[in-house]
Design goal:
By secondary structure, this protein is mainly alpha-helical. The protein has 4 helices and no strands. It is 78% helix and 0% strand. The radius of gyration is 15 Å and the shape is elongated. It starts with a helix and ends with a helix.
Length: 93
């Protein structure tokens, strides 16, 4: 999932002023949770499984919440490198 979100992020970075609040909040939650995990290196197996589930959910939410913004950016005139990324994303869906 992470590579897909990174690809989406390339598109979002081209027009940061058009990113919806929902998408931005989702990305912030994901980043915050990843930072929290980096600090908590020694968790139990159960906690690690819970954290992995939460992380997957945050990735999925970010992809869902940001997809509309990415599609909107891709539907307008974009630079050739971003157009290529947009085509790559549309082939993944």
């Amino acid at each position: 999932m992470e590579p897909h979100l990174q690809t989406m992020f390339q598109v979002l970075n081209t027009k940061p002023d058009t990113i919806s609040t929902t998408c931005m909040d989702s990305l912030k939650k994901l980043r915050s949770f990843k930072e929290k995990l980096a600090k908590e290196m020694n968790s139990s197996d159960v906690q690690s499984e819970i954290n992995a589930t939460i992380l997957r959910t945050l990735y999925t939410n970010s992809i869902q919440f940001c997809d509309t913004d990415v599609q909107d950016i891709c539907s307008h005139r974009v630079e050739p490198p971003i157009r290529k990324v947009c085509k790559e994303l549309s082939s993944q869906n």
